[in-house]
From TrEMBL:
<feature type="domain" description="Lipid/polyisoprenoid-binding YceI-like">
    <location>
        <begin position="11"/>
        <end position="180"/>
    </location>
</feature>
<dbReference type="InterPro" id="IPR036761">
    <property type="entry name" value="TTHA0802/YceI-like_sf"/>
</dbReference>
<protein>
    <submittedName>
        <fullName>YceI family protein</fullName>
    </submittedName>
</protein>
<dbReference type="InterPro" id="IPR007372">
    <property type="entry name" value="Lipid/polyisoprenoid-bd_YceI"/>
</dbReference>
<comment type="similarity">
    <text>Belongs to the UPF0312 family.</text>
</comment>
<dbReference type="Pfam" id="PF04264">
    <property type="entry name" value="YceI"/>
</dbReference>
């Protein structure tokens, strides 16, 4: 059953078992590689009466990257990409939340990858809420943003014989979360 937005106001914790933090990048100019991070955590304060007072934070373990290919994952953990040994986390900390439609929000915040922090704005959709069998109030949010990986010092690439490059500069970050209200 859906709860009115004002009743959703409170503190929330992301449920990693029912959430996904992922990405999509073009490979060899012809296909997309999709991946996700298996280890992350996040918190949020949601304000149903005044969405602009809402805020959140997500922390992702870079060494938990998973594209379904162990060799590629190992390469992504190196300094060519995420440099997981020296930069074990990617963080996003919101700075503003703006309602832009019935269930749509723009969440601006500071994204930090490889010690480089830049502002980004994610387009989010509130997908609903429900009380689970354990009595927990859950809310669903889906969001994404396209970034330039080079803006964050992730510069490695290889030229292709017929033109173009092996890995696109543009990467879509995807966030699909179930958050549990804390009592």
């Amino acid at each position: 059953m859906t709860t009115a937005l004002p009743r959703l106001t409170g503190e929330y914790v992301l449920d990693p078992a029912h959430s996904r933090i992922g990405f999509v990048a073009r490979h060899a100019m012809v296909t997309k590689v999709r991946g996700s991070f298996d280890e992350f955590e996040g918190t949020a304060h949601l304000d149903g009466d005044d969405p602009g007072s809402s805020h959140g934070r997500i922390t992702v373990r870079t060494d938990s990257i998973d594209t379904g290919n162990q060799q590629r994952d190992q390469h992504l953990r190196t300094n060519d990409f995420l440099d997981a040994p020296n930069h074990p986390e990617i963080t996003f900390v919101s700075t503003t939340v703006e309602r832009v439609g019935t269930n749509r929000y723009q969440v601006t915040g500071d994204l930090t990858i490889k010690a480089t922090t830049r502002p980004v704005t994610l387009d989010f959709e509130y997908t609903g809420n429900a009380v689970d069998p354990y009595g927990n109030l859950r809310v669903g949010l889906e969001g994404s943003v396209t970034i330039s990986r080079k803006d964050f010092g992730v510069n490695w690439n290889a030229a292709l014989e017929g033109g173009g490059v092996l890995v696109s500069d543009r990467v879509v970050l995807e966030i699909d979360v179930s958050a549990i209200k804390q009592n």
